[in-house]
Amino acid sequence: MSTRKVYFNGEFINEKDAKISIYDSALMFGDMVFEMTRSFNKEQFLLNEHIDRLFASASYVDIDIPMSKSDLSNACIEVVKQNLQAFDKDDEHRLMINVTRGNLSIYENIDGAQNGVNIVISDFPLKWTVQSMGPLFEKGINAVITNQKIIPAYLLDPKVKSRSRLHYMMANIEVSRHKGSNNWALLTDPDGFIAEGTGSNFLIIKNNKLIGPEPRNILRGISLDYVIKIAKDLSIEYVEKNIEPYDVLFADEAFMTATPFCLLPVTSMHNKKIGNGRMGNYTRMILDEWSKRVGVEIDNQIISWYKESNNKLTPYSINKK
Question: Nearest to residue 32, comparing CAs of 154, 135, 127, 117?
């Protein structure tokens, strides 16, 4: 297997050699914006949308990305090309694009330190992220509303995709102590309304309508936008409103959506069944249409990776070894 390559400030280097300074503002403050993508049949999906959001996030926090959107897009595509020989035939490519502010000014004279903005594009197999999720297409997620709240927009805008995400980790740690299996965190805002998961958007189906949270206190997900587009094309009405935990329990269906797995059913909350306790008809319809549009049976692909995997850890659980 060939060594994976990483784009690092204009060069393609071995993955193990991609390092930033211990004085980088990303390490000091979580001061970094990022995007993570996936491919279907080796083709990057909605790459331009991810890059647009990356530039918006960087602009919001006053990080000046020293390259154009088209140059960054070309760098992403080149990373994939450089890594084709390092991937198994059935792998998909998951890009992680990190942009750090660089060393704080008081550390700029450290001998050998890289000063200025860092742009790092790494490429690793998508299956690492999703292979443990195979059973969830049938069993579904058990949502657990955490004591940890989402950080609301009036404190730190969640529409900026940054690495300042300790609240996500604290929610995941809390849920890792919850009894049972397939437990994922579901965060509420300070008013008690449903916001999002720790890296995924949340929606419900009720009375033939797709319902999502009002967008002020959530990351406006690219997958969320794609789900809404599919729903409208399928003549499913989409509504934004405040969603209470009560609404989730008595919804007809619920699901999470995010770039790596696309769509997973939420079949219970605090072990209380939602709908019939299985993936609902509308959820199935949206997932099937997504699969059709990208030319990949999304659930079957992830299920196949699960069956071949020895690693059953989920990224939403905490490895306590």
Answer: 117
